[in-house]
């Protein structure tokens, strides 16, 4: 009974004091941001962007990243499709590729949409080149019925990326999205 009464007193105290404490803490951080000078905000922003660039550099060099597409488009000048399925990914991990992306097959209309859903460890001509804007990762892989696909991933310094998949049989398909680390 004594424990129950102590427990109830704690709950009541937290219920009434909690919002006041949270509001005071939020006001304190808000005041901190308003008191910063323009130069201090610029320095914080530059430090944050440098940290993001360092993270992107480390996951590309380690070949340990995942591309999450948001749009896809058949080149040249095809219709753009927005992708909302979280299962659509393109992963490079420990020298292997895993892909689950929609793809547009066919040279002339009517095109058909297929799903590239496979994985391979046989990555040929794997190259990573650092540019002024980030990285370019390219390689070839033979998938399905001995079709040679070329994958080119252009990664900018702020986790955005463009993936282009091409082969000899169909038009190129380009995806835009984000890069994240594989854990």
How would you characterize this protein structure?
- With 183 residues, the chain is of the alpha+beta class.
- It has two helices and ten strands, in the order H-H-E-E-E-E-E-E-E-E-E-E.
- Strands 1, 2, 3, 4, 5, 6, 7, 8, 9 and 10 form a ten-stranded antiparallel β-sheet that branches.
- Strand 7 (134-143) and strand 8 form a beta hairpin.
- The longest helix is centred in the N-terminal third of the chain and has 34 residues, at 2-35.
- The chain is extended and about 75 Å long.
- The mean pLDDT is 82.
Short account of what is shown:
The chain has 183 residues and is of the alpha+beta class. It has two helices and ten strands.
Overall geometric form: extended
What composes the largest sheet? 10 strands, antiparallel
Strand content: over 45%
Integer-rounded radius of gyration = 24 Å
Helix content: 25-40%
State mean pLDDT (0 to 100 scale): 82
Task: Give a count of the beta strands, DSSP E runs of length 2 or more.
Answer: 10
Query: Structural class from helices and strands?
Result: alpha+beta
- State the end-to-end distance: 47 Å
What is the element string, with H for helices and E for strands? HHEEEEEEEEEE
Number of helices: 2
Low-confidence stretches: none
């Amino acid at each position: 009974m004594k424990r129950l009464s102590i427990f109830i007193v704690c709950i009541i105290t937290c219920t009434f004091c909690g919002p006041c404490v949270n509001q005071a803490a939020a006001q304190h951080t808000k005041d901190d941001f308003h008191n910063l000078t323009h130069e201090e905000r610029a320095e914080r922003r530059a430090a944050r962007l440098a940290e993001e660039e360092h993270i992107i550099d480390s996951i590309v060099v380690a070949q340990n990243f995942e591309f999450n597409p948001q749009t896809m488009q058949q080149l040249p000048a095809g219709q753009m499709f927005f992708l909302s399925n979280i299962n659509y990914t393109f992963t490079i991990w420990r020298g292997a590729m895993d892909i689950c992306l929609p793809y547009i097959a066919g040279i002339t209309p009517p095109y058909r949409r297929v799903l590239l859903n496979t994985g391979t460890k046989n990555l040929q001509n794997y190259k990573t080149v650092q540019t002024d804007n980030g990285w370019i990762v390219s390689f070839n892989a033979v998938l399905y019925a001995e079709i040679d696909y070329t994958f080119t991933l252009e990664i900018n310094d702020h986790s955005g990326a463009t993936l282009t998949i091409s082969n000899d049989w169909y038009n190129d398909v380009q995806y835009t999205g984000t890069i994240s680390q594989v854990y």
